[in-house]
Amino acid sequence: MGLTEITLQKLQMANLRLKIAIIIILCGSLLIANKFYFVHQNISSDVFLPIHTNIEFFCVFVALCTFTVTWYSYLNNCSYYSYFIGLGLLAVGFIDLFHFYSYEGMPNIFSESCANRANLYHVIGRFLMAVVFLTSVFLYKKEWCPLGRFRHYFLAATLALVAFILLTVSLYPDLYPVMQNDQGLTQTKIVCEYIIITILVTAVVGYLWLYKKHLDHHLQLIIATLTVSIFSELCFTSQGSVYDTTSLLGHVFRFASYVLIYMAIFMNNVKRPYLALVAAREELARANDILEEKVRKRTQALQEANERLSKAATHDFLTGAINRMEFSNRFSEMLKKSQESSLHSVIALDFDSFKKINDTFGHAVGDECLKTFVKAAQEVLRPTDAVARFGGDEFMILLPNTPRAGAKVAGEKIRARLAEIANPPFTISMGIAEWPNNGGKEKELLAYADEALYQAKAKGKNRVE
Predict the structure, then answer these.
(1) Which residues of the chain register pLDDT less than 70?
(2) What is the pTM of this model?
(3) Which among 256, 71, 221, 24 is positioned nearest to 133, based on CA atoms?
(4) Which residues does the UniProt record annotate as the domain GGDEF (predicted)?
């Protein structure tokens, strides 16, 4: 692990210690202030019961919501860590419901309301919650997807445990030790609270170890939950009666701990997967954009390759003139469109002393001269005309709808243009054939043009015949 990661770990651990210190100072200050300024001052039941009922109902609601979150989010991540906590909070939520209905002054719903029964439900619920969180330390980051087959059985077992606690506490309270009598809290109740505190402290140590190992932000909320719960239990160890300010402060701490646990479970099971999904969608969108760009470039490259292949099939790769096959295709198309009065011409040509150019300047210069000729011809000819290379320095020019006189003008223009741009200077000789007067078929017409070309050569070259 690099220095940067070690430094980051130290900063995060320092941040966690600061948060824990703030929670301890805040909760400790409230506990000390209550001890020295209120000294077990009792609150009227008309005031205490509505506050207590609302806090307990909120805790029950949060416990059930937390269970719902873990129940459905398990389907996505197979995390029986969260699922285990959710089942524990479900059981604790129902026990808290029995607890606040058992308070003195509440209507008799499950059984007769009394302080001992209310404290009994409280101790059982707090003990169960502490054990759940301590056990969850060993389940963190464990995934077991086959557990999904038994989810309903585990839920049924949890509800059966809740039903067992309700029946035994309601009908057979003597099975349990007395938690509160006329003199106040019993020693058993106080010992049970300290046992719960010990379990919670052990759970905090376990989660601190987990946080140091994984640096998972939601573990900070779990640690904060357990820390506040410890202060809540400290209040319940020192309360004078169920209606005093210490008891109320303990319930306020419980309220805060339930808010924190819900935030922790929501962050771990909902927020984090949702953010991961958003990040995955953004990454997928970026990958899709990259893929589309690659496809676009590949498509463009394929189109260009196809165009090059298509051009290679119809054009001479050196000069860009059409090839012999394309010349024949265009000649055939021209004849198909011809009318009885149509006159077409072809010009056969080759270079004068092309071998001398190659021998004197080299073949590379000879190739450039061939390109220069094609360029000169294309500059002076019409778009409908075509220059074809038949081989070496032999070319044929197709002039649709052009009589012999027009073809001669075109040939002279080419010669004139070459005189301007040819470097090194070179000349060409040309022979004209007119369709249909000099031949009705391509072969006949080309033969006549070749014969005219020979005449131009015989008459001194660099001319049009």
Answers:
(1) 1-4, 38-40, 45, 74-79, 103-111, 113, 145-148, 240-242
(2) 0.63
(3) 221
(4) 342-465
